[in-house]
């Protein structure tokens, strides 16, 4: 796999950093998640392909242990607010001195400087500070965050993974590591560059929810079907729009022009009435094979059985039968091979990893006895 041989130390975080670590693990990196001790159950649902060691970083021995892991690793990924790692004596200054090849990834909401740098926050806060949240939501309603996808994952975990891969590639030439300052505010905004760049062509001149791509246009929206499900319509171009009207059995000569903003509410009423006349499966059959840009809004339990997704194998199952999206993109020669493991217990691999990193049995025993590290019973045989 593309990242085979890359060693990553992921300090346990909430969602963005775990997702970043999972992406790296899916594509072959060896990711070790450093969990807190005395926390039997991790909230990390994105643990696929990782191993867990439980270390108390509030002890000098625990911090020394982490330094020893980082000296022998390629990447350290930390999910804490600005300054936390420095307080532990584990900041870039220390770790890059001990390992100049280390890629030190810092995934935060607001970045390593600025008035908010030390403030707590979550996806919705970062999305709000990016400007994008102001553009999300129906006309006349308050801004609506699209789950915690844009800041936590698109602008956070995935952007940080890109930064890590870029730094790994650059290190091939320079031989040097560097610090990655991954701010979710900036990552989300960057992922939304189109909004800034397309403003110049009038894409966002109208209020929230009244533009071409934010739910304003009746030919770029969702519609309830007779059975209470939905169809998604994306018929932007005139040639696709005409195919939409054809399947809906509407005569364009009897309708207002597609781009007549003032007539969009009337068009939406007409489309709503048509879509409400048949069940989703019937509309799916009618639109299949056309270029009307109309698709069923699939629920999470429908996606893997949809013929297209099934043919591609777009969704997989882990050893526990849990379904998950296949890692993307698919590399032709070195594709991701996600681990099938369904569970990860805090400290499950503490002994195994410490042995791998050169700790001898006496050192491990001492740290276990002192509570510097913890090992879950399932896997900790010396
Ligand atoms: C929308 C998403 C949220 C996704 C996660 C959700 C799934 C879950 C989040 C909260 C959960 C709920 C909650 O826990 C309450 C219930 C609990 C119950 O058990 C289950 C149900 C719950 C409802 C539960 C359900 C779900 O699990 C949740 C909803 C996001 O937006 S996530 C993005 C968050 N932001 C960032 O990641 C940006 C960067 N990070 C930060 O800004 C801060 O870390 C953050 C997130 C604000 C947290 O701040 P906090 O003060 O807690 O920590 P830090 O300041 O970072 O400092 C870390 C301290 O920990 C010490 N430390 C670290 N490792 C170790 C170690 N191995 N040993 C010892 N100590 C360690 C470190 O030294 C720091 O200590 P100090 O404070 O003394 O410096």
UniProtKB/TrEMBL annotation:
Q: Which InterPro entries match?
A: CoA-transferase_III, CoA-Trfase_fam_III, CoA-Trfase_III_dom3_sf, CoA-Trfase_III_dom_1_sf
Pathways per UniProt = Lipid metabolism; bile acid biosynthesis
Keywords attached to this entry: Isomerase
Gene Ontology cellular-component annotations: mitochondrion
Reaction equations catalysed = (2R,6)-dimethylheptanoyl-CoA = (2S,6)-dimethylheptanoyl-CoA; (25R)-3alpha,7alpha,12alpha-trihydroxy-5beta-cholestan-26-oyl-CoA = (25S)-3alpha,7alpha,12alpha-trihydroxy-5beta-cholestan-26-oyl-CoA; a (2S)-2-methylacyl-CoA = a (2R)-2-methylacyl-CoA
Say what the protein does: Catalyzes the interconversion of (R)- and (S)-stereoisomers of alpha-methyl-branched-chain fatty acyl-CoA esters. Acts only on coenzyme A thioesters, not on free fatty acids, and accepts as substrates a wide range of alpha-methylacyl-CoAs, including pristanoyl-CoA, trihydroxycoprostanoyl-CoA (an intermediate in bile acid synthesis), and arylpropionic acids like the anti-inflammatory drug ibuprofen (2-(4-isobutylphenyl)propionic acid) but neither 3-methyl-branched nor linear-chain acyl-CoAs.
From the Swiss-Prot or TrEMBL record, give the protein name. Alpha-methylacyl-CoA racemase
> What organism does the UniProt record list as the source?
Menidia menidia (Atlantic silverside)
